[in-house]
């Protein structure tokens, strides 16, 4: 292997991949070099290349332990690297913080690898140690009188999984902002979430799957996509409830009447006016902050502890106590909603959603710029919907910089997003293993896969999941590398199944018995039309209205949709208790579909709240930005009204799940 080829490998720059068609694609060498340059490497500087190769490969063999040492909790061993000719007379592992000291038996060592450098052969050995609880620990290794430091990551085999082997749950998925408040508030928040939690738990619902609640751009409310956030480690103040704030601090809710009882205009609008909603919420929160600053209270100590614990995440708000207060309040209210869910009998409670990246120019990006590749952005390789590939505009993390920082940033990310919830869904979970980088070469967009230190990222997920008793769900739609599939299965990371996409090679919907057991099953998600819009083809006509389809394309899409509906009718006639036809009402078809899916082996069945509202308009049309008002569409009815009208469907599904 020549020097540049070795460095490409060490930086995780992919060599090849298989397209959606199954075709084998080898990346152009210049494209791979460009990816390396995006990592800040001067590919023309041989001395720099040699230095980096030494630091990333050879150096780790010249010291017994690396900066991070992974330890399996169930079969604990420590890995060391030594000269093959070294006689080990003393080997101890100690963790001062725990008072832990293990004297290892060198005779039980097992060689698991070797390396030759400058005529010396080095071996990698595994040596058994005493058991340690799951977590991260600063450790000292004594080897023949010499002392070395490492960080032990004691990792469980599996993520936390509260669902018993034969138990099956039912949940709802919502876009929190889309809920319709019962009163005359402009927009929904954690108050409406708490109400929904209590009402749905009473019907036997076990969890609520949320849209990402990440901090968006407070000063630019129209940047409304939760998947292009300002900072994934923080929460959006948009969701803070004035009602819950008043309960917490004993304030008179009537003083916020102007906020809670706004002008009736636009209250029944189809789409939210995000600017008006954000301004109204901030005005109320500033008023609350002024009132609280005039008082003394026990909350100040809790707030101070929060700020100290999240110093890194709050760095952008260094001189803004109000912004910090909003973050503390948001996390407090989210945790309160989760407590309400568990107290009401939900098995899991709230499921948070972690976006795959942050927006360009965001607070998250600017405060961690040294961790990102220079101009590379995350996207997707060519597929039938985008022959040139997709550029999502999300800055790409540099895998080498991430590891050099001992993954402190990724730990922050996971810890922040498992706070106050019962489960975490990771959008595009394949990104833990590889991401498609987009960049420009000769003024043309190109790209390739870049691989990440999956073993370490997976270890963090498992450690945090078990420590905080939060289950993990991975959105694994599309082309999924086999190593991701195996790791998810072994680690009890639940898959995310969309009914629309579960088909065989002939394009027919799969039998429900083929679904994975450890999976969260949905009819669709935020990128796919609601069922009622899908059945009526309204989503296609909407695309034509916004000039996203030409007239010939609409005709073809209509024909394809009719074919899909015929396949669904055939599938329901085969696995359901009654038959349906293309002329059947969407409500009848949907109810039968949920009845069939409720009997499937997937442990988690999720019903979209949009479908219970018989919503036809999509939340989001992928590939659009300004054309359609994405991430603003509201529901037609309040949660109480939707639950009441859907009670028979929900209860039947709960009963089927229990059977």
Automatic annotation (TrEMBL):
Record has Transferase as a keyword: yes
Record InterPro entries: GH, Glyco_hydro_77
Known EC number: 2.4.1.25
UniProt entry tagged with the keyword NAD: no
Sorted UniProt keywords: Carbohydrate metabolism, Glycosyltransferase, Transferase
Catalysed reaction equations from the record: Transfers a segment of a (1->4)-alpha-D-glucan to a new position in an acceptor, which may be glucose or a (1->4)-alpha-D-glucan
GO biological process: carbohydrate metabolic process
Superkingdom of origin organism: Bacteria
SUPFAM superfamilies tied to this protein: (Trans)glycosidases (SSF51445)
GO molecular function, one term: 4-alpha-glucanotransferase activity
Family membership noted in the UniProt record: Belongs to the disproportionating enzyme family.
Full protein name: 4-alpha-glucanotransferase
Lineage, highest ranks first: Bacteria, Pseudomonadati, Pseudomonadota, Gammaproteobacteria, Alteromonadales
């Amino acid at each position: 292997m020549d020097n540049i080829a070795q460095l490409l490998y060490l930086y995780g720059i992919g060599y090849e991949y298989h397209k959606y068609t199954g075709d084998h694609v080898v990346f152009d060498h210049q494209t791979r070099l460009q990816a390396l340059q995006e990592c800040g490497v001067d590919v023309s500087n041989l001395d720099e290349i040699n230095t980096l190769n030494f630091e990333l490969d050879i150096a780790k063999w010249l010291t017994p332990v690396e900066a991070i040492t992974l330890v399996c909790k169930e079969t604990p061993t420590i890995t060391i690297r030594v000269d093959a000719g070294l006689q080990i007379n003393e080997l101890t592992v100690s963790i001062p913080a725990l008072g832990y000291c293990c004297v290892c038996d060198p005779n039980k060592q097992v060689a698991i690898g070797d390396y030759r450098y400058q005529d010396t052969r080095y071996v990698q050995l595994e040596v058994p140690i005493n058991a340690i609880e799951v977590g991260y620990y600063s450790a000292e290794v004594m080897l023949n009188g010499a002392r070395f430091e490492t960080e032990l990551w004691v990792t469980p085999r599996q993520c936390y999984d509260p669902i018993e082997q034969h138990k099956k749950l039912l949940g709802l998925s919502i876009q929190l902002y889309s809920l319709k408040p019962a009163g005359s508030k402009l927009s929904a928040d954690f108050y409406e979430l708490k109400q929904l939690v209590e009402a749905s738990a009473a019907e036997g619902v076990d969890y609520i799957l949320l849209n990402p609640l990440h901090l968006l751009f407070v000063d630019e409310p129209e940047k409304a996509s939760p998947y292009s956030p300002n900072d994934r480690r923080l929460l959006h103040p948009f969701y803070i409830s004035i009602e819950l704030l008043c309960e917490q601090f004993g304030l008179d809710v009537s003083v916020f009447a102007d906020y809670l009882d706004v002008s009736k205009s636009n209250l029944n609008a189809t789409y939210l006016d995000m600017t008006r909603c954000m301004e109204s919420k901030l005005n109320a929160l500033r008023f609350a902050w002024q009132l609280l600053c005039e008082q003394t209270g026990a909350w100040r100590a809790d707030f101070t502890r929060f700020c100290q614990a999240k110093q890194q995440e709050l760095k952008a708000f260094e001189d803004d106590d109000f912004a910090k207060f909003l973050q503390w309040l948001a996390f407090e209210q989210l945790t309160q909603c989760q407590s309400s869910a568990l107290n009401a009998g939900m098995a899991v409670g709230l499921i948070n959603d972690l976006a795959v990246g942050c927006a360009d120019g965001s607070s998250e990006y600017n405060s961690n710029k040294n961790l990102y590749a220079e101009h590379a952005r995350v996207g997707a390789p060519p597929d039938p919907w985008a022959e040139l590939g997709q550029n999502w505009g999300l800055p790409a993390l540099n895998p080498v910089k991430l590891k050099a920082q001992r993954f402190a940033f990724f730990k922050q990310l996971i810890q922040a997003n498992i706070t106050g919830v019962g489960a975490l869904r990771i959008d595009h979970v394949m990104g833990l293993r590889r991401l498609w980088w987009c960049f420009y070469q000769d003024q043309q967009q190109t790209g390739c896969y870049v691989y990440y230190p999956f073993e370490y990222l997976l270890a963090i997920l498992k450690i945090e999941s078990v420590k905080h008793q939060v289950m993990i769900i991975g959105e694994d739609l599309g082309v999924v590398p086999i190593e991701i599939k195996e790791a998810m299965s072994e680690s009890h990371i639940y898959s995310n199944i969309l009914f629309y996409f579960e088909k065989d090679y002939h394009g027919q919907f799969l039998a429900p018995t083929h679904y994975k057991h450890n999976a969260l099953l949905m009819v669709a998600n935020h990128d796919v039309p609601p069922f009622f819009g899908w059945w009526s083809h309204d989503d296609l006509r909407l695309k034509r209205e916004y000039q996203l389809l030409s007239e010939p394309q609409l005709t073809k899409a209509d024909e394809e949709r009719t074919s899909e509906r015929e396949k669904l009718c055939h599938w329901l006639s085969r696995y359901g208790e009654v038959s349906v036809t293309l002329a059947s009402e969407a409500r009848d078809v949907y109810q039968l579909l949920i009845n069939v899916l409720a009997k499937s082996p997937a442990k988690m069945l999720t019903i979209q709240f949009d479908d219970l509202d018989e919503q036809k308009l999509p939340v989001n049309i992928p590939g659009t930005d300004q054309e359609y008002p994405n991430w603003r569409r509201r529901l037609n009815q309040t949660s109480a009204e939707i639950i009441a009208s859907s009670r028979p469907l929900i209860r039947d599904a709960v009963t089927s799940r229990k059977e």
